[in-house]
Amino acid sequence: MTAAQIPSLLDCIDQSLHELAPLGLQGDAYAFVAHWLEESFVQLKDRYALYYAWAVRAERFNAQAGYAALDDRLWDLEKRVELAAGSTWTTDAADAAVLRFGAFIAAYNGNPHDASLAWEKLGEIDLAINQAREAGDLERAYTLLRQSGQPIPDALSTAVKLVRQAAQLVNKQQTLRDGERRALADQLTSLLAALDVTPLRERDDDALLDDLASSA
Q1: How many CB atoms lie within 10 A of CB 185?
Q2: How much is the pLDDT for 2?
Q3: What is the tally of helices (H) and strands (E) in the chain?
Q4: Which alpha helices (H) appear in 45-69, and where do they start and end?
Q5: Helix extents (H) in 45-177
Q6: How far apart are CA 185 and CA 62, in angstroms?
Q7: Could you give the CA distance from residue 37 to residue 81 in angstroms, rounded to a whole number?
Q8: What is the DSSP letter of 151?
Q9: Which of 40-54, 105-119, 144-158, 182-196 bottoms out in mean pLDDT, i.e. has the lowest?
Q10: pLDDT tens for residues 2-13?
Q11: How far apart are CA 76 and CA 98, in angstroms?
Q12: What is the distance in angstroms between the CA of the first residue and the CA of the last residue of the chain?
């Protein structure tokens, strides 16, 4: 199969998934799509520019029908690129098509920060903003929104201001009186309860590993 034929096969996978999606079918109904996906994977070889297109179809197939080999296939492709382009390829690959795959892999592996960096380099600002927010990069998301002229959500704007002021307060809190400290602590406790998050230092290793696995 030539490099020019692989995109045609991927288009067939796209069309088939689109046609099968509303039918609610499972199992054998997707057998030919699974075959095409595996055949196209075998033919990818070192054609790095096609990895992103394949990965998107593979993830879509997994969402519709289940694809047990997805993790292994993506890991294989990831390591091929890493061997050729170095360990930081997901954010600094020179080839735009490879960098696009890097953004995909970073997000898939639970690293939205690097995914955001890659999407920004590609000029995909909306995707960069989305991944920055997923990463909790408040300042970065805020800056990207402002630079792109998009409206900044009120909650995000307020959160950025709060983080900035909290950083300043670290160096100023010594002058607060006991009552002021208690009042501030009460407000922060209420905020943590509303956010429904657990400080990282209070979580055990198993819980952290579970979170990482669920985000990958």
Answers
A1: 10
A2: 77
A3: 12, 0
A4: 51-65
A5: 51-65, 70-85, 89-92, 96-108, 112-121, 125-135, 138-147, 154-170
A6: 46
A7: 20
A8: P
A9: 182-196
A10: 778 999 999 999
A11: 15
A12: 32
The amino acid that residue 68 corresponds to is A
pLDDT for position 199 = 54
CB count within 10 Å of CB 134 equals 17
Which tokens hold the place of 155?
Answer: 């909650």
Quick one: what percent of the chain has pLDDT higher than 70? 91
Task: Give buried/exposed letters for 29-66 (b at 16+ CB in 10 A, else e).
Answer: ebeebbebbeebbebbeeebebbbbbbbbbebbbebbe
CB 11 within 8 A of CB 35: no
Phi, psi (degrees; rounded to nearest 5) at 69:
-85, 0
Place of tokens 């955001």: 116
pLDDT tens digits for 177-199?
999 999 999 999 999 889 887 65
Question: Do 52 and 97 meet the contact criterion of CB atoms below 8 Å apart?
Answer: yes
